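hiii so my PI (J.) wants the whole complex modelled not just the main chain, which honestly fair. so below is everything: three entries, each one labled with what it is. i double checked the lines twice but i was tired so who knows lol
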Amino acid sequence: MTKPLASPIVGSVASPVADPAAANDPAAGTPAAGPAPRRPIVARLSTRPPMLAAGLAVALALPWLIYPPVAMDIACWALFAVSLDLLLGFTGLLSFGHAAFWGTSAYVTGLVAVHAGVPFPVAVLGGTAAAALLAVPIGYLSVRLRGIYFAMVTLAFAQLVYFVVNQWRDVTGGENGLQGVPRELFGLDLSDPFFFYYVALPFVLAGLAVAWRIVHSPFGRVLVSIRDNTARAQALGYPTERYKLLAFVLSAALSGLAGGLFAISHGFASLQDVYWTTSGQVVMMVVLGGIGTLWGGAVGAGLVVALDDYLSTAGFQEVGIVTGGIFVVVVLVFRRGIWGTARQLVAPR
Amino acid sequence: MLEQAFNGLVGGAFLALLALGLAVIFGMLGVVNFAHGAFYMLGAFGAYVLLDSYGVSFWVALVAVPLALGVAGVVLERLFVRRLTPLDPLYNFLFTFGLALILQDVVKRQYGVQSQPYPRPAGLDGSVNLGLFDYPAYQVFVLAVSLAVCAAVWVVLARTRLGMIVRAATERPELTRALGIDVGRWVTPVFGFGIALAGLAGVLAAPMRAVNPLMGGDLIVTVFAVVVIGGLGSIFGSVAAGFGIGLVSALGNLYVPALSQTLVFILMAAVLLWRPAGLFGREDAPA
Amino acid sequence: MEVLGKAVALTATCALLAACGGGPGGGGGKISDDKIVLAVLNDQSGVYADLSGKSSVTAVEMAVADWKARLGDDAVTTDIEVVSVDHQNKPDIANSKAQELYDRQRADVILDVPTSSAALAVANVAKSKKKIFMDVGAATTALEGEQCNKYTFHYGYNTYMLANGTGATVTRDGAKNWYLVYPDYAFGQDMEASFTDAVKGAGGSIVRSDPAPFPNDNFSTFLLKAPGLSPKPQVIGTMQAGGDLVNLVKQYNEYKLRDKGIGLAVGLMFITDIHSLGPDALAGTKFTDAWYWNATPENRAWADEFQAKAGKRPSFPNAANYSAATQYLDAVQRAGTDGSDAVVEELEGHAFTDVFAKNGTIRPEDHLLTHDVSLAQVKPKSEVTEPWDYEKILSTIPAAEAFQPVSPDCSMG
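here's the output for the full assembly
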């Protein structure tokens, strides 16, 4: 295996130069040598009913607070970010090419909707399946590598997908994008984005619920153990590569679900959906929200989409400086992310 | 066809220089520098600004700009990268990603997205007869410079104490430290050197490529693929892969132009299937 | 899974409530909300920012001011607002912002929108909201072809006009054999197809046509191939744009192909590209220009005004946006209302000449603006008398020849 200099995400027991500061670095909270007794991961995640109910209330109220198409965007990106956190925060794999799945699903969903005239959930299902299928070969080739290698390889694969989508112009429309994706649901009039948000929301919530369920399952616990110490997990007899691949495919499928809904919501799929900057954007959302907090990604998504929206209208030209600046600040001083910091402030000692 | 192959080597020269810088930085610090493309761009812009505002010639820029960027790299390492190095490399990767976005936009704000003019240096305007064909002198110069730099780096790595330390730190970091060698003091200069290499590639690119803020952005992904093919832990591998990919791309453009963009990534997938550590990488036992 | 159960229950309730959700308010009376809102949606931070970003907003503001001055008290209303939004070259942002502009900011017309995918997305929004969209910045012929609709207008230029102007005239001037190099994406492929038709139609032939990766900084392979082709091409037709064009031209000059008898014709060239490369790099290159600031005294006078406000010479999208805004306002004046259907009727078939469009007509069948365009040539540096004075106009291509016939794919919805 290629050697990483430090094991994924959190300080590793295996590193002989055990820097206590590093070992305690909070990304998802597994202090290797802290004075307080370790609380089990499951409980540390905010699964308390009041928090969940609050989140649900926000999700339901969103189109009243924010322009509905933007609210739908937030919902889609939130699911996308959560699915990435599944891979990043819980399996310890940074994929810098997740746009491949979001975007492929967007196109497949669009194509099914345009050509087959089925209810949109069926189209979205098609897109999700396509994303999951695409994840198998990419994941198979990539999970052999760890840490930063994994990130670079997924980035490069995503570029490959981008070029293919661009070249396959007859099917995808190339640079013009796939236009005119309809919203069909048994003849219901879904043209009002306000109404559509509530029709699509159950799917988003279902995706989020699946992510939650994965994390709170024996499978999820194995993933975390792989993240923390792959060698030990292997020693315990787990086929780590297979687990990683499965996590990758599940994460890709949920990203596909998000991307498919996004395509239906916008009525088109474009090259932007498979471009690497989209991969970077979702990573930023997860980092901003808090790696390994699962719901942090949703918070990050809300903030970034709202910020993008604001910057567009504010006539501010240097979006990159703001985006890059956020990345830099979060990585340097704010690594727990918003959710992580909030949780730490609220957590009883 | 020979001319095309030579052509490919020139294109590969840029890839090799950039891959070399990336590999050197990764070797010493474990940092994958996403901002490498941005420093390449800054190199080209540095040359442009020096010429446009101060009338400084290409030749002076060739030395001054990489030096200045090397210093900038040193400062960057001391102030920021150092803080993140003990943590998971992910953080430095993300930091450099953010940095790349910032640098790109700052330049865009100052100079707009349009390309800036930069002429070929006087003296290298014409063509050189290479026996079988005539070739633009400047491109021969680029190839010569990059080969010289790669050779010089190889000599340093193979023959000097510093080189020995860098190689040891790259291949067996814990063991090196355990042997009591102070790797730390070399980390900063080596980082600066890697950045300087990116800047050098940028200055070389200015007369023959479009000088605009976006010039590094798309190149960096190709460089990543090159480095994965060569083997991230191997400095020789990165350089060899750089020239090799340049060659293959040029020939690919000649015979199968429709595939040319995807060629690098197809190769990368093939290499990963066959040798996951890259062509020249080492299959290490997990730490 | 009680979470999911609660979610479903609450969602169902809310869905019922949401069914009463309101849509955008309709325009009532003569002038909706008693004011006209012109929205400029374009790229203010990406690749097109310099060409037509904030500068086009300035152009539209100029148009409004000039229109008010011209009509004085006769104007149907003097309450006119210009808003602008940056779509960052992202079609999904363009799509959302277009909806927001029409719904929330009560925009009566959206102008500009470069980048084909964004333009097509906005065209669909315009169609569903039944509000007017005049695209200036995008080149795709799909806007007046298969994606045409009643509320969308394509104003300024398209791939056919670019290819045909250059391809046909350069062929007729004596360059019979062509080698085409084009970027391998929709714009490049469209241009290549149009160029091929134009060249063949004028009696020339395409020796070879190669797709190049996009973006690309190394065109050596293609340039080195050229002299060896048989029959030897007299001209290389390049469809690259922006940074790619700059790369190609730089390398074209390095290989001294002009000295070897192989000229260069460019599909899409903006004056900003000439500025980037310096006139000497492109000296002698011919291309089709929709509008040049120094072509006539009238153009120049307007360009001087523009320079005073924007601090630089105008590109053709700037002028086209000015013209589109003016024609829109004139149409509102004629219709007496800013209701979309009435204004569309006034715009359709309208023939006019203004500072941008000479012999301009807005075709009723597909809402394409046809107008005279010029075949231009880049001056060598020695002939440049003032900043931005880069072009020499060789000939005028009349509107009927410059633009394509109505596409059978277009059916007005």
